Amino acid sequence: MALRRTRIGVMFSSTGPYSVVARSMLNGALLAFKELAEDEASLALEPVIVNPGGDLARYGQLSRDLLSDGIRHVVGCYTSSSRKEVIPCFEKHDALLWYPSHYEGFESSNNVIYTGAAPNQHVLPLVEYLLDGGGSRAFCVGSNYIWAWENNRIFREAMTARGGTVLAERYFAVGDTELQPAVEAILDARPNVVFNTLIGTSAYAFFRMFRRACEAAGIDQPREIPVASCTLSEPELEEIGSGAVDGHLSCSVYFSSLDTPASNAFVRRYAAAFPDGPTSSADAEASYNAVRLLALALAAAGSDDVAAVKSAVTRQRLAAPQGAVWIDPQTLHSWLTPRIGRSTADARFDVIMESASPVCPDPYLVQSSPRYALGPRQPNLRVIR
Q1: Do 250 and 374 sit in the same domain of this protein?
Q2: Domain containing 43: what range?
């Protein structure tokens, strides 16, 4: 059954404090739309792009505008606060938000398709890696909103369940770059790892400030107090800049340095489409996957009806840049492949460990027994040579 041209909302903050990541997400979605338009056999999808500018109230208003105008599907949001802000609107209009960001879990909305990583696909593999390497004394620093609060809670409980310790936590407003108190507290506490949940300009400032402070104190920061994140991506490494960019750990489901035919092709197509950047990343890949999965589901459903599309998407399999990706019918979250990367001086990542296969999403962490214990049902990371 042929669909008429279908309008799809695209909502990312291409300006504001976390615009670098949001622009990479926008680019990933636009690349998917571009490829679909070039494929004569594909659906005719028209992106309708809006920019909330990082203003939380704007997310709600723009969502209402899109859905009141007859749009049924929107790919968008980076922060958890923006997702939480718009979900009631999607529930009221019985529309679908295709959410392409790693997040803190403990949510499963019937009006959201989650194509980013759940906590068992990023936080728990990172904890496992850190503890196995001796990083048992952690200091958490994050942006003052739900993403950092919840991920630090999960990180803390997972660490303590395995005998590790979180020495302290510090929080700052999104966009705040006056982070010296946290840097001083970290150096006083002398942890053997920092867990970073700062986002955007706050994170970039912290990496630079922390490296300078460690150098002044005679500390080899990457070796003695590595910074580990579940958000750090290639465009953000470029924002950190030379001198402070290398030696950081990131747990993600995709890195642009992943050396596979599918990944290399994605990186080439992305670079050709967006020569001015931001660089391709896990965030760009997640929004690319969201549009691709949406297109597959629309074609299979033969309609943009939300119930039909939601049913159809759980039967699709996407050959994504990271590998096979599909939507779990119970949670509407994605099966994804966790990986750990270490940043390099050229603002890329060496992939040092990865799961042998895609991991079932577990947004409520119910598959660990006891919860947070990193047993055999968690990702079995293997070393990459």
Answers
A1: yes
A2: 6-117+259-335
pTM above 0.85, yes or no: yes
- Residue in the block written with tokens 């001796």: 134
Is residue 1 in a domain?
Answer: no
Total domains in the fold of the chain: 2
pLDDT tens readout for residues 321-365:
999 999 999 999 999 999 999 999 999 999 999 999 999 999 999
Question: 351: buried, middle or exposed (CB in 10 Å: 19+, 13-18, 0-12)?
Answer: middle
In this structure, are 368 and 307 located in the same domain? Answer: no
Distance CA 71, CA 75 (A): 11
pLDDT recorded at residue 125: 95
CA distance 178 to 119: 29
Beta bridge partners of 353: 340, 383
CATH of the domain at 304: 3.40.50.2300
Q: Does 269 map to a domain?
A: yes
What was the pLDDT predicted at 379? 56
Q: Please give the share of the chain, as a percent, with pLDDT higher than 70.
A: 95
3-class SS letters over the chain: CCCCCEEEEEECCCCCCCHHHHHHHHHHHHHHHHHHHHCCCCCCEEEEEECCCCCHHHHHHHHHHHHHCCCCEEEECCCHHHHHHHHHHHHHHCCEEEECCCCCCCCCCCCEEECCCCHHHHHHHHHHHHHHCCCCEEEEEEECCHHHHHHHHHHHHHHHHCCCEEEEEEEECCCCCCCHHHHHHHHHHCCCEEEEECCHHHHHHHHHHHHHHHHHCCCCHHHHCCEEECCCCHHHHHHHCCCCCCCCEEEECCCCCCCCHHHHHHHHHHHHHCCCCCCCCHHHHHHHHHHHHHHHHHHHHCCCCHHHHHHHHCCCCEEECCEEEEECCCCCEEEECCEEEEECCCCCEEEEEEECCCECCCCCCCCCCCCCCCCCCCCCEEECC
Q: Which pLDDT tens digit goes with each residue over 280-332?
A: 999 999 999 999 999 999 999 999 999 999 999 999 999 999 999 999 999 99
> Is the domain of 167 the same as that of 251?
yes
